[in-house]
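User: Some background: our group keeps a shared notebook of sequences we're curious about, and every so often someone picks one and asks for a predicted structure to add to the entry. Today it's my turn. The entry only has the sequence so far, pasted here. Could you supply the structure so I can complete it?
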Amino acid sequence: MQTPVHHTINNNSFWLSPQRCIFWQEENAIIASDLHLGKTGHFRKSGIAVPQTVFKEDLQRLIDLVQSYKAEKLIIAGDLFHSKENKELNLFKKWRHDFPLLEIHLIKGNHDILKDEWYGACGITVHKKSYSISGFCFVHDAADADCDAGTEYYFTGHIHPGIYINGMARQGLSLPCFYFTPKFAVLPAFSRFTGLFNIKKSAADAVFAIAEKSVIKI
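Assistant: Of course. Here's the predicted structure to add to the notebook entry:
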């Protein structure tokens, strides 16, 4: 497994993975956002030839992470799925039944529009607005944060954060990133089949760019 980078928030250990997720050591939980499972299937249905390997690679990365960390929980900060049910989601169902003891908590994102019965059949605990645990709160969109009064820090997704890095000869590159402010964090999109929104870092923020197999503090 690629080497994660350690980051501490309120005396809790969070390991930032180049695979676009976080392992929360104290809760033995993987935190991720914006997987958009099934997105490639919807593109193909619309006549756009996106190979199914994109979806399969994302799902395999998730399987590898659960096994490598021996995680007991999977916390998804929104947009686990991309839209309505399609054939690709049958592969997710099969994967889910191979890990029956894994707790899955989904904070609904704007793309999570499947019926409640579908989530229930897959053993997914759905939270409409937020999920709070051990002083931390998870939401999809920071604008909709509705956390418990005891929340000390919260995690969000939704915007697919990226950071622009200047290079030589007036060239540069936008990379997905983990974005930590003093009050909240924004997770990178787990799926590689997404765009980026370049954030503007302030002096109080901590930003970690994801460059292939490495996580680099900016």
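Suggested note for the entry: Residues 41-51 have pLDDT under 50 and may be disordered. The CA atoms of residues 137 and 154 lie 4 Å apart.
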